[in-house]
Amino acid sequence: MEVEKVVIVGSGPAGWSAAIYAARAELQPLVFEGAITDENRIAGTLPLGQLNLTTEVENYAGFPAGNLEGYLDSAITTSHRLNMAPHSKHGISGPELMELMRQQARNFGTRIITDDIVRVDLKRHPFQLTSARGETVGALSVIVATGARANYLGLPSEEAFKNRGVSACAVCDGALPRFRHKPLIVIGGGDSAVEEATYLTKYASRVYLVHRRDKLRASKIMAQRAEENSKIELVWNHTLAEVLGSDEQGVSGVRLQGTLKPDSKTLEAAGVFLAIGHTPNTAFLQGQLELTNKNYIVLTRPNRTNTSVPGVFAAGDVADDYYRQAITSAGSGCMAALDAERWLAEREH
Ligand code: NAP
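^ thats the input. predicted complex w/ NAP below
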């Protein structure tokens, strides 16, 4: 079995930033970027992470609004560029930013395997990591950057209509013909909910943004956008009780339940988009690394990326339920690579 100096698991901003730093430190990183499967598409765990599921990114320093078309054409390999949506000229999009990060990591020699890591043995050293296709690699150090995925409420009706009108990703599914010129529902009150609702107004006749309280959690600028958008109707103090529909037609509406009063109302809609927070992708680490009660990786040293296992580092949303920003993820990816490099050097690897 080949033993790698650094294996990076995950391909969001944390994973690629770690790869860029590790490659430049001549650690020849190997990245498992995730598998391209239907299961991962539905779960929201495809390669390139959550940012690949968003629209414009206005808060990543260094990318002000502007026409980046020529730059993107020159920076990204043609095969990947051809698979990307056209540039919007409003600045960088999430998928564009992610392709740029991936390309930058490749430019410095990062090797990439398009598969999931499904099992790890961190109780022996070198560590062992096994992929979904059954490949096992050894690693002197590991950086976990598997991020987090969108939550669902867990209603049976929600499960029944997944892929037929229920989604947790407007950018992935919003343009489907079934949603065009129809009313749509977004559940949630954070930045994601506002972003999803705003995006869906491009296709929907009306978007109901249903929130369980009477105030959005979203940042002021985002909340203002929702309130000022004439196609978005805010439905306060309600939550989703049931998705309505039929086998033939898919979703036809929702039944909402009051959170202050026990009232119930139905709304006609062709789609329901959940935007109610995230769960870290740590199932493959159970019993191997210390996790919080919400299954985030515990960082064991202040201002460092060390985990409960020496030689294993964590970066990005998988260890962060507080900031959860692309730029903080990228920063922690850089930190994890530096921590891994120093840890290896101390052991003369
Ligand atoms: P979030 O801020 O945690 O918001 C989740 C929302 O879902 C909250 O409004 C919450 O209600 C609601 N919710 C949770 N569980 C629910 C349930 N069981 N039933 C009904 N509603 C429920 O998550 P997020 O919006 O995904 O944002 C995550 C992070 O990413 C944040 O730091 C955010 O700033 C960032 N983000 C930024 C941007 C941007 O800047 N463009 C875009 C997207 C995300 P309560 O308010 O009552 O708790």
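The first helix runs from residue 13 to 24.
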